[in-house]
Backbone:
């Protein structure tokens, strides 16, 4: 069930680069971005389109599975498999069908989606919906402050595609002692998290006792995805939103922001951090 690299993650371009008042033409590397359609089906069902997302090609099955799991549309134990759609012709690597052992509820898919912060969201309704299908985490993991401070450098060192393009977000799962478990990159922050969650689901595991580190800010949606994947601690190099903190507190997630050399802020469930 491993996804193959059917589309390039890095594209080449010729650019005019201006440096110190001089213009030169040179080659540049760009992060790949293409649409991917996610389809889902249960036993005896025809695959139904659930969503189309813009993503960086690579780890497509993880993205599709992780998206369905973190949106509450697929129980990890119901995962039967994932495959590209051969009927899509030259777009086959941009269409992924996820098979479930249980009947897939397309109506639930239509009900579960909320607008992102770019176009407005009813925060209370969204938070209540997530809480209903994601019980609070009671994970007793404890993390040393020194371990947290080591995570940004560890994540950055593993960002191979970012090194070439400078244009990708990352999500990295760590053990409590700081050992890297898995890192995924994507043009979308949420996609990177979905890829990590998908890897866990495909391995028959969850995030219990582990930490998630993300580039950029900490949003409500990322907290939601971490909670559904049962990850008790989530860290970001930038700030959380107010709704992200509210969700983290409600869902039992320790939210760490502004994680940079020299310090960090703990916004919820600070008892898991040993200063």
Residues:
């Amino acid at each position: 069930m491993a996804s193959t690299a059917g589309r390039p993650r890095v594209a080449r371009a010729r650019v005019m680069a201006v440096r110190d008042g001089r213009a030169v033409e040179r080659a540049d590397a760009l992060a790949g971005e293409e649409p991917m359609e996610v389809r889902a089906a249960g036993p005896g069902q025809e695959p139904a389109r659930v969503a189309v997302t813009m993503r960086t090609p690579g780890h497509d099955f993880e993205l599709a599975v992780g998206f369905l799991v973190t949106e509450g549309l697929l129980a990890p134990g119901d995962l039967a498999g994932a495959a590209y759609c051969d009927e899509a012709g030259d777009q086959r690597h941009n269409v992924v069908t996820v098979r479930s052992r249980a009947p897939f509820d397309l109506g639930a898919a239509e009900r579960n989606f909320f607008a992102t912060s770019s176009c407005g969201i009813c925060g209370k309704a969204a938070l209540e919906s997530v809480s209903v299908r994601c019980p609070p985490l009671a994970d007793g993991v404890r993390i040393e402050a020194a371990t947290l401070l080591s995570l940004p450098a560890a994540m950055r060192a593993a960002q191979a595609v970012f090194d070439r393009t400078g244009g990708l977000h990352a999500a990295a799962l760590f053990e409590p002692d700081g050992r890297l478990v898995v890192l995924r990159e994507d043009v979308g922050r949420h996609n990177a998290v979905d890829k990590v969650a998908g890897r866990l689901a495909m391995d028959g595991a969850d995030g219990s006792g582990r930490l998630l580190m993300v580039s950029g800010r900490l949003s409500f949606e990322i907290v939601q995805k971490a909670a559904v994947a049962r990850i008790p601690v989530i860290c970001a190099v930038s700030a959380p939103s107010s709704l992200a903190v509210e969700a983290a507190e409600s869902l039992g997630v320790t939210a760490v922001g502004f994680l940079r050399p020299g310090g960090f802020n703990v916004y919820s469930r600070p008892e898991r951090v040993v200063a």
User: Anything to note?
Assistant: Residues 143-274 form a domain with the Cytidine Deaminase; domain 2 fold (CATH 3.40.140.10). DSSP finds eight helices and 14 strands in the chain.
